[in-house]
Structures are given as C-alpha cells and as structure tokens.
User: Fold this.
Amino acid sequence: MSRATGRAGQGASMRNLMARAAIGLAAACAGLPAGAQGLPPLACEAQDGSWTLGLYGPVAQLRSPELVEFVASAIARGPEGWPAWQALASEAETRVVRVNEAACAAGGASFPLTVELFDPSTGTLSPGCCTVAE
Assistant:
C-alpha cells in the first residue's frame, strides 16, 4: 500500500473485500456454479445515460465512463427465470446486477428488459434497460 492511500485506502479495500465475500457467499448459498443458468448475451444502458453494460456469459463490460471488465457469475433466478441476479467481480471492483423481464425506456428507445446495477462499495443502485445483444 502506498502512503497516499492511508487509512481511507484501507477502508475502501476492506469494503471491497467485504463486498466480494458477500457476493461469494450469495453464490455459494444459491448452489449455482459460475455461469450456471446464465442469461443470454445482453446489451444494457443506464436510464440516465451514465453507463453501458454488456453481459456476455462469464464476462461483463461496464463503461461508466472508464471501461472495466468483470468476471460474471450467476447467483440466482426466479421460478420463471426472472428476475435473474449476477455477481460481477474485477481486480478492484464488484457489482451485483438484477435483470427482470419488464418493458423499459432509456435514451428515447424501448427495451424488453429492466436492469438494476448495484455498487456495494457506495450503496448506489442505478436503474437501466437491456436487450438481447446481436
């Protein structure tokens, strides 16, 4: 750890570690191996335009505005297949994604799926919309 990060950096690292542990525990409790019951490839965007997300099986890409690549793991799915939750983890960040089969609008376009992107390090929940990627 560098001197520049100090205690604030230690706190952020601890929150990130705790978030990763929570995601791992959720996946283990769900009894699903990584990638099990995965979603089709999806292209998603925030309703406010602040991020885009591509979910491609075991890989996810989030641009907000920088590009971060994640390893995606299925956590759980509802009895009819929706909603579906996925855990996203990279070297430095984690997110939890909830996708549901419900109409959505963003950027003047209509989409067949809604998405909620949760950042456990900040407690931020950001809504968006998805479609099956071409």
User: Anything to note?
Assistant: Residues 6-132 form one domain. The beta strands are 42-46, 52-56, 59-63, 67-77, 84-89, 94-100, 104-106, 109-111, 113-119, 124-132. The longest helix spans residues 6-30. The two ends are 42 Å apart (CA to CA).
